From TrEMBL:
InterPro entries referenced in this protein's UniProt entry, alphabetically: DinB/YfiT-like, DUF1993
Species annotation: Chaetomium fimeti
Protein name: DUF1993 domain-containing protein
SUPFAM superfamilies named among the record's database cross-references: DinB/YfiT-like putative metalloenzymes
Length: 184
């Protein structure tokens, strides 16, 4: 018997797996021979693209946004609490790893029951004072949170891959394969 997919599965468990994937990717980057010289602030896929660190920070921000907006008891995780200085010129793989780990811990602390009713909760998101977006929780998760999270995760992976970091499909997709069995 299968259980239906719910807001917890899509809004918490899936980004959590994505952050575990991001940890894999960061570990591979740290093991790269030129890791010490990888300039995070200048590491782009192409000239007009945001840098690698921006994509990692976006994954973290989006992943923590769901519980911040939909789970009343969740305390927002601030980068200062994690002891991470995200000044663009001083970003390191280690600092990004600490940031990711902080939100992994936050998401691991969210229980499925805390997301009950989240699908219908009103979510308001403001962009730079110009735009205000309003969704019900389900629409926010499926139409904004998850697609944006996956975009930035893919960009982080792709940027490192384009720089010769030895990341492969299983580094990316492995954490998403929860519950899979291999039949021989």
């Amino acid at each position: 018997m299968t259980t239906p997919v719910n807001a917890y599965d899509i809004g918490i468990a899936t980004p959590l797996r994505g952050l575990l994937s991001l940890q894999n990717i960061l570990a591979k980057a740290a093991a790269h021979p030129s890791a010490a010289t990888l300039a995070m602030a200048k590491l782009h896929g192409c000239e007009d693209m945001k840098p690698f660190a921006f994509h990692v920070q976006s994954c973290v921000s989006i992943a923590r946004g769901t519980p911040d907006r939909l789970v009343p008891a969740t305390q927002p995780v601030e980068t200062e609490q994690a002891g991470v200085d995200l000044d663009e010129e001083n970003v390191t793989l280690e600092k990004l790893g600490v940031l990711v780990q902080g939100v992994v811990g936050l998401l691991q602390g969210v229980r499925e029951g805390e997301m009950e009713g989240a699908e219908g909760k009103r979510v308001v998101l403001r962009y730079g004072g110009e735009h205000t977006f309003v969704w019900q929780g389900r629409g926010y998760i499926l139409g904004y949170g998850l697609p944006n999270f996956m975009f930035h995760l893919c960009m982080a992976y792709s940027i490192l891959r384009s720089q010769g970091v030895d990341v492969g499909k299983m580094d990316y997709i492995g954490p998403f394969m929860d519950g899979m069995t291999v039949q021989e």
